[in-house]
Design brief:
Distance between the termini: 24 Å
Radius of gyration: 20 Å
Order of helices and strands: HEHEEHHEEEEHHE
Number of domains: 1
Number of strands: 8
Strand content: 25-35%
Strand order of the largest sheet: 2-5-6-7-1-8
Keywords: Signal
Length: 222
């Protein structure tokens, strides 16, 4: 441990720019097709269980959606409240462009289940997700939209804390994907849904939802 602290101190002195606090914000989205005849209540229960594995805070709602499911599923839309009108535009102009994405919000009109979740690791990552479960005649589609903010730079204590956090809970990129895939894995396990990946950014390669999630049955990182 002392060796790690010493190396960080030397690196900080030699590279003063790293002592500056800075954040990197990335938008992401993923859409999964879930072909199944499972009832809505089972889908919602499974999605909620999967989400709880890795998030410290989540608010969910089940809107009333009446009538026969449509032939094609709905899709989320994105809006930025800071872009609405001249007054909001003035506020947006005061915010660095790299941080504007953090104010975007996803709308899930037509979804039978909506979740807004937060996963925060102090000094390392803040992940904000919106999940929408859209019904259609062949099953459901799960839409996921997120803002992933990674903290970078900072002084020795910030960098050491980040390194220790990564040793305990893993690197942010890995947990971002796990947080999303654990929802898909739980739905697949509980309902027998046939899962396929429709699209996303960054794209998920292969079929990782077919691999049992690490730590299934236990609590996720908080």
């Amino acid at each position: 441990m002392l060796a790690v602290v010493g190396m960080l101190a030397i690196f900080a002195v030699q590279n003063p720019a790293i002592a500056q606090d800075r954040n990197q914000s990335n938008e992401l989205y993923h859409i999964f097709d879930l072909k199944t005849a499972a009832p809505k209540r089972d889908m919602i229960a499974a999605a909620g269980t999967g989400l709880k594995r890795n998030t410290s805070d989540a608010q969910t709602m089940t809107p009333i959606v009446m009538g026969t499911p449509p032939e094609t599923p709905g899709r989320f839309t994105i809006r930025n409240p800071l872009e609405g009108g001249a007054s909001m535009g003035g506020i947006a102009a005061m915010i660095p462009a790299s941080q504007l994405a953090q104010f975007k919000q996803a709308s899930c009109d037509g979804a039978v289940w909506i979740a807004n979740a937060l996963r925060k690791v102090r000094g390392s990552q803040t992940l904000r997700l919106t999940l929408c479960l859209f019904p259609y005649q062949q099953g459901y589609q799960l839409n996921v939209y997120g803002i992933d903010v990674k903290e970078q730079g900072g002084g020795i204590s910030a960098r050491l804390g980040r390194a220790l956090a990564e040793q305990v809970v893993g690197k942010p990129d890995g947990w971002t994907e796990k947080t999303i895939l654990d929802v898909v894995r739980e739905i697949r396990a509980k309902t027998g849904a046939t899962v396929s990946y429709v699209e996303g950014q960054p794209e998920i390669a292969g079929t990782p939802w077919e691999v049992p999630a690490a730590g299934v049955g236990g609590e996720g990182a908080k």
